[in-house]
Amino acid sequence: MASPEHRATAAAILPLVGGAANISSVAHCMTRLRLELRDRSLVRDEELRALPAVLGVVEDDTYQIVLGPGRVARVAPEFQALLTATGPATGAVTALALAERGAAIKAARRTRNATPGKLLLRRVANVFVPLIPALIGCGIIAGLNGLLINLGWLPGITPALTALAGGFMALIAVFVGYLTAKEFGGTPILGGAVAAVIVYPGVANIEMFGRQLSPGQGGVLGALGAAMLAVYVEKGCRRFVPAALDVLLTPTLTVLIAGLVTLFGLMFLAGTVSAAIGEAAGALLSGGGAIAGFVLGGLFLPLVMLGLHQALIPIHATLIEQQGFTVLLPILAMAGAGQVGAAMAVYARLPHHPGLRATIRSALPAGLLGVGEPLIYGVSLPLGRPFITACVGGAFGGGFIGFFHMIGDTVGSTAIGPSGWALFPLLRGSHGLGTTVAVYAGGLLTGYVAGFCATYWFGLRNPPEPAPSSTPAKD
């Protein structure tokens, strides 16, 4: 049943983004309503940001309205229903003119902001994002299974849990190949077929450069490269193979050429790179310790703002495939802890700002569970200085975990995606579960406290004026 509150939110947003005639498509992610606009100049930003349900606005390829987890999934259908009920605007000439003008504005913005490097990182990230639910589910099962094995409980069920947790990871290269081909414009099943050779046990019989291949060598990076090569070969075949022979020759040549290059080149190269990534991550934290953790935790929020955090997704996946967990994610998750601490300080320092405090109250539960966008775009970034002090909190939390890694208490995550409190079920380390949980919890607490203190004392030297209100504010 539709909620009147969510229907009212959708109805309030629609006129502020130019009405139904200005919307070409609607989608949503975990926290944002994503709109394809025909004419960006029709949007009334200030009025939109002032809506109580709106936590912030982000401009990228789409116009993104931050509503927060849970709410966005309920507002989006109501918004789509309004568009359907409203129908196309009258006046075909006006609609066409708006579409042409909006397309020109969008093209100019993309030319200005979208660099080839960022676009490539975004497309690579799009390959791995669909894998996150399976990584989370299998990671939690693996953690539960490890706990049962350590306790000696349910010995009859643990082999089944091992199979459930390990089956996906054993074949992850196939999924990466499939999704890579799909993202880069090839035939997905051909990408999966070429990548499947990486995990095929029979590759152990192949020798090249005096070395034997081993199943899984190159991992997700090899699968990514193999599938991208398959797309390139397939597109080349489409240009030169006669149409009458396309159905026979194109898939055959794609698998043959891309597969041979993968076996006799990419698997060795990707295997070397994958091994180097694992060694570099371990050496960075073992040698750098608190300093490395401080830098990583402090820089993650700016990386997110620049879109450069997407480059870390294949690295996380490689570490999970190699070692069973990624040691980088718990440190980077400390950025969210600093964000939570900063938001708490803003709440405490600005008692006469009911609108801002209401935003913090609604966004804080999501922030504690590792979804930081509502707090970033609704609180710290608009205020400016608290974004910097949130980075300080993340740096101290990262330094805490980095220090313990240096002395031998490694903390890692068996999946990518969650952070904050949601990461606890996915933790795995070099010692017992109790030690791993204690170190991660200590990092979170350090991030909260450091983010709070830095923001409380240094983050609000010039606090904003409270919004005028005709009625006494209740908080």
Automatic annotation (TrEMBL):
The keyword Coiled coil does not apply. The active site is at C29 (phosphocysteine intermediate). Residues 122-470 form the PTS EIIC type-1 domain. This is Permease. Residues 7-89 form the PTS EIIB type-1 domain. The keyword Acetylation does not apply. The chain crosses the membrane at residues 120-144, 156-179, 186-204, 216-233, 245-270, 290-313, 325-348, 360-380, 387-407, 437-458. It comes from the Bacteria. Pfam families: PTS_EIIB, PTS_EIIC. GO terms for biological process: phosphoenolpyruvate-dependent sugar phosphotransferase system. Its main location: membrane. GO terms for molecular function: kinase activity; protein-N(PI)-phosphohistidine-sugar phosphotransferase activity; protein-phosphocysteine-N-acetylmuramate phosphotransferase system transporter activity. It is found in: Cell membrane. It is a multi-pass membrane protein. GO terms for cellular component: plasma membrane. SUPFAM superfamilies: Glucose permease domain IIB (SSF55604). Keywords: Cell membrane, Kinase, Membrane, Phosphotransferase system, Sugar transport, Transferase, Transmembrane, Transmembrane helix, Transport. Coiled coil: none annotated. It comes from Streptomyces inusitatus.
